[in-house]
Write a structure and sequence with these properties.
Largest sheet: 4 strands, mixed
Mean pLDDT: 88
Radius of gyration: 14 Å
Helix content: 10-25%
Order of helices and strands: EHEEEEEHH
Number of helices: 3
Distance between the termini: 16 Å
Number of strands: 6
Low-confidence stretches: none
Length: about 140
C-alpha cells in the first residue's frame, strides 16, 4: 500500500488512519501488509494499492477502481480514493480497502444479502463509521489469498 505522493496526497491524519486499519483489520488476514516508501505506478513491480484523498463522483465518500486490469477478474494495481474533511474514518477506509482486495456489497455476495446487513461488517452500504472488517470478511479474504 502507498499513498499518492504527487496528486491527491493523504494528510498525516489520513495516512495514520490507513495504517491503523491495515494493521489492525487486514493484518490478521493472509494478506501481506506493508507500506511502500518507494511506490511504483507502472511496470511489473507496481505497488498493489494506492490511497488518495480527493473528490469522488456522485454521493459516495469513497471509491475503488482497478488501474491495471490483468484479466480474469484480476487487477495488478488498485486505487482507493476517499474524500477529505474527515471522511477517512475507520469504517469507510475498511470498506474501500475491502473492495481493493475483492470484497463486494451484499447484493453481489454469495449468498446475496441486503447491502445494509450487519453480517457484512464494514462492507455494509452505507458503512457505519467505526465498523470493523469482521469475521466473515476475514474468512473470505483468507479463502482467496
Amino acid at each position: 500500500m502507498h499513498d499518492a505522493s504527487d496528486s491527491y496526497p493523504l494528510e498525516s491524519a489520513d495516512r495514520s488512519m490507513v495504517n491503523n486499519v491495515m494493521t489492525n483489520q487486514f493484518g490478521p488476514t493472509d494478506l501481506s501488509i506493508s507500506y511502500d516508501s518507494t511506490p511504483s505506478f507502472s511496470g511489473t513491480a507496481e505497488t498493489d494499492v494506492i490511497y488518495q484523498e480527493g473528490t469522488v463522483p456522485g454521493s459516495d465518500n469513497g471509491m475503488t477502481w482497478c488501474n491495471d486490469d490483468i484479466g480474469g477478474w484480476k487487477c495488478d494495481q488498485q486505487y482507493v480514493r476517499i474524500e477529505g474533511a474527515g471522511a477517512y474514518a475507520p469504517g469507510l477506509t475498511c470498506h474501500e480497502t475491502g473492495h481493493a482486495v475483492g470484497l463486494v456489497h451484499g447484493i453481489y455476495a454469495w449468498q446475496s444479502t441486503s447491502n445494509d446487513s450487519d453480517a457484512l461488517y464494514c462492507m455494509q452500504k452505507p458503512v457505519p463509521s467505526t465498523t470493523p472488517l469482521g469475521t466473515i470478511n476475514r474468512e473470505s479474504i483468507n479463502d482467496v489469498y
